[in-house]
Amino acid sequence: xxxxxxxxxxxxxxxxxxxxxxxxxxxxxxxxxxxxxxxxxxxxxxxxxxxxxxxxxxxxxxxxxxxxxxxxxxxxxxxxxxxxxxxxxxxxxxxxxxxxxxxxxxxxxxxxxxxxxxxxxxxxxxxxxxxxxxxxxxxxxxxxxxxxxxxxxxxxxxxxxxxxxxxxxxxxxxxxxxxxxxxxxxxxxxxxxxxxxxxxxxxxxxxxxxxxxxxxxxxxxxxxxxxxxxxxxxxxxxxxxxxxxxxxxxxxxxxxxxxxxxxxxxxxxxxxxxxxxxxxxxxxxxxxxxxxxxxxxxxxxxxxxxxxxxxxxxxxxxxxxxxxxxxxxxxxxxxxxxxxxxxxxxxxxxxxxxxxxxxxxxxxxxxxxxxxxxxxxxxxxxxxxxxxxxxxxxxxxxxxxxxxxxxxxxxxxxxxxxxxxxxxxxxxxxxxxxxxxxxxxxxxxxxxxxxxxxxxxxxxxxxxxxxxxxxxxxxxxxxxxxxxxxxxxxxxxxxxxxxxxxxxxxxxxxxxxxxxxxxxxxxxxxxxxxxxxxxxxxxxxxxxxxxxxxxxxxxxxxxxxxxxxxxxxxxxxxxxxxxxxxxxxxxxxxxxxxxxxxxxxxxxxxxxxxxxxxxxxxxxxxxxxxxxxxxxxxxxxxxxxxxxxxxxxxxxxxxxxxxxxxxxxxxxxxxxxxxxxxxxxxxxxxxxxxxxx
Length: 693
Prior knowledge:
Layout: H1 11-19, H2 28-47, H3 49-87, H4 106-117, H5 120-135, H6 145-159, H7 161-179, H8 192-195, H9 202-238, H10 245-265, H11 271-292, H12 295-311, H13 313-317, H14 331-356, H15 363-395, H16 400-403, H17 408-416, H18 422-452, H19 461-526, H20 536-544, H21 549-573, E1 579-582, E2 596-600, E3 608-618, E4 635-643, H22 657-676, H23 681-684
């Protein structure tokens, strides 16, 4: 985005800013068409439910009949693309500046990926999907060992690598262009290498509008599943008549209201606390099922399930049943194709979450973590619940559990009836579903608002509440109009253009990383050590002296600023505009934010920036001896350079004025050379001014 500064603060800072921002931040070209489409859809469903049901059924049949192959090819392409990127030289690229460090430890990061992998879907389908595949498998005979084997293989396929390849692709695109190019965390940013400044026009607005509608459809589908399962569980526990549209809508209203309270309390206090609570309850429930269920059988089944899944992965990935029809008509469209559409419609939501927590990690770390960690947890969960249900039905219930499989809403609670402490565990599951419900609505509203405002961090809280209400109304109206059929069909249709856009995003990401690597190669070619050894006594004195922050600021004022002003004055004399900015006074209370910089504006390109800032660095443990107990002496402060393109800075405290001018000119010469290289023009074109400080 030309000449526009785009920042991505951390969630707590965003939240504080949002609280104090009363103005409207909606991007009208994105929001207005999306609300018109959703409004027409909801009015049509509310006034003409029967016609809407026929319309949704017809739309689902048409999409499955014509584009089932496209969904399979696209999702498999995302997985192959991520594996290729991770194995290539692009895997070393860091999501952020070259010297960026991960914000979270590996343990904390993987824990948050666990949380991202959990949701209402696992609660709803953990028992329901394996048992339904066992009763109606795609190719095997029902109620046989082959059916059980195929049931878990199909479930693993739907919840395994392919699902997280969709999320990982979207998350990688958002993280790369958001943290490397300083573009907003929206889908249009991934098309910058292909469209460049046109992402700010009608094409970019259309892409974000499709993402907005698709995300609302996907989240509304999940809220619909949650409302149905929550109502069924409460009905079984209380003997209330909850099998009514009114009660389900009431569930949506209550949960969305709670999500509004969570949104008002802020991300740090709301979503984070709820997510941690979710994770603890989930592990408690998982451990209970493993311990109280057929424990030995579950570990045996897990080993075989993983083997069957990995051995059949290639064949299942591109299977469209072109040469045969599954024994259950419509199985492929009702399960596999619908799942791929569901993951795609959720990809802006989950992708943005995993992008925001992954700044500073390499592309390879990102891909390996996103593909392996949540997938492993999902497979463990599906084995624990799915294999336990099949084993209980065949060894304990004598088929009685299978007879209730048609009512998936209540199936989880029927399953608990065959385990100890059924009532207590059922209530625990109801609480867990409710909290998942609230978290999905709250965080979903936050992500939808980010798409609607093009990643603007200054959105007021009421906008998030508005989108939470939109999600609730969408789920409630579609539940009344056609139940899950309407929600599924809406997801299937809305995800189709999003899938096509994601294919283009893969190409855009590849182009961006190619420019990035070529840029790095140019930088290495221009990197030279120009120090001749002059003034070595002065340099030795600086080396043995441990500077304080005051020393560094004094150096910046006495050496760096005069050198920058000399260069700027000479450039101005030669007709080249340049200016020097001194932020040391305003940044005095902001630690490393204090900086000085020389900027040379360039039309159509990123400005040339040579900046210096004080950086506080902790000494390595092996360097500490007698000063180990002195906390202040464990740190050093250095004047470190920064640039506009994310390259890693370095310490310049040993340079004199003439040497510093030589360093500035060296980088300016490199900048002009790199800008003239067609391989790197993409990276140097100005999507927005970078402010590394």
